[in-house]
Amino acid sequence: MKEKINQIISKYNSDRSRLMDILLDIHDEKGYVDKNDVNQLAKSLGISAAEVKETVSFYHFFSDKPRAKYNIYLNNSITACMRDRSSVKEAFEKACGTTFGHVTEDGMFGLYNTSCIGMNDQGPAAIINDIVFTNLTPYRVSKLIEGLKAGNELRSLIYESNGDGNNADPDMHAMVNNNIRKGSILLNKDYKKFDVIESELAKRSPEDVIQMIEDSDLRGRGGAGFPTGMKWRFGRRVEGDHRVIICNADEGEPGTFKDRVMLTEFPDLVFEGMVIAAFATGADIGLVYLRYEYKYMLKYLNRILSEMREKKFLGQNISGIKDFNFDIRIQLGAGAYVCGEESALIESLEGKRGEPRDKPPFPVEKGYLNYPTIVNNVETLASAVRIIKNGAAWYSQFGTKDSTGTKLLSISGDCKFPGIYEVDWGTSIREVIEMCGAEKVQAIQVGGPSGMLIGPRDFDNLSSSDLMKWYKPSGMMVAEKFFDRKLSYSDLPTGGSMIIFNMERDLLRDVVMNFMEFFIEESCGSCSTCRNLPYIMKMKLEKILNGHGVRKDIDDLLSWGKTIKASRCGLGQTAANPILSSIVNFRHIYEQHVQAMADYDNTFDIVKSVEAANKFVGRKTEFHSN
Q1: What is the mean pLDDT of residues 364-379?
Q2: Containing H/E element for 452?
Q3: Would residue 415 count as lying in a domain?
Q4: Which domain holds residue 27?
């Protein structure tokens, strides 16, 4: 194995910044990285063993211990739980003969929980040895494990035919479905692939391209909404030996899967957007950071890039434009939500832990390997192609004055038609509900767990009797005024995730608790606020749900939510949002659980409180009153 690892290191020219690729290759070869591997890597790459260890220990899909022949990662997102994940989990444990977090004694099966894998419209889903299995049921689980025990090849046990569209491509061969429900200017096959590179760029200057993007008012589609043209202009002005364009395809926000569909059906549009961005900014290095959960796409996407090189749309003097040299490399992640934040993503690209950087300097000044770096979302880059082809005025016809263009929505949860919808900015929440076939909607999570949980007063979907049922138990007045909230940067901005919950869902116990557990699991641990407060807030919520809460507990949660804003990155700053937004819009539910008029918990049971400790140490405690 030592010689094999030396070959892997040589493959990447002993480049320390390619540590992620080196570790991924070692995992493909032997399944884990042990102490000897760490020491060998440290010596060969000229770094400390601690630096190698910290990268190995940071990512979900890396391991320093032997794993199984078949490693099963079962998604635990809220939408999977809503579709009976618990029964699927029990079926895996029964069929494999072990519990989650463990490997069977014979080393055949390893069971692991994992966060959202981008399959919210077709869950419960699992990744087994890099193959995605969707729409799992206990029956399908039992047959799958039965087949593996019988010695069948894993891919032969796929229980549904290939998915739709390019999912059926031989280089993907995935049972994933796109579920495109509504298209517009992006989800549309009416354009000639690479037409802008071939016939438009040579006619324009980089300044012209940046000006068109600025005139279109295109803003980043990852959630923050920073003006794209402004970012490109800044990037072009900063001096550097190289400039870098990064496509952020690490959509780890639970409930989001639009980038998965764009990369499946329209990868050429995304890559063409990167070439346009490179032309505009003078970049010569292109990187796509692809989340590990989408590894099944890698061969297919690399084939598209190879075809672009053959057609001179990548490489030297692209499309005959002198000194326009630019190429794209795809970098796989290894499972870390925080890498969706641009500076953490850059750290990961450099082979490090995905911890956010202090700002300033911003990536556009000093990013990847300290070069000026422009990071854009998949959807943003695809939009740029349509703008350069059809013009800024054309693009501005879509959407609203302050939010131009269209938005891709990943809709899942309690609705008849989960999937991808491309809508104009300015579309109302009520329209979204009608489009996806949702009924008796209690709440919608807009923008994923880090976004906002909105209620009936924001879309007026419930009948008077439903509203009475919902509000009256708390003694609250039924809201007299309702709003028809709209998706826009001035009202409800979103990266695209929308999860719908009907009247039967327990918002606090099931939804908010699931989201808080996600943030606890996914914190990079760099900031004490994000490392500690989500856990403390979750414990306070548990206290309330268990009937021991008082009104001050709600106020404490709101106060702690302000403190967490001191976290370094935007992801840490929003880690309390599941609790904060649910208090703002569903405070009556919290108040139903707390003890009325009490200043302290008057239901404390000292005998019950030490019951677990007594059982653990094998003692019996008796309490006597004086």
Answers
A1: 97
A2: strand 452-454
A3: no
A4: 2-58
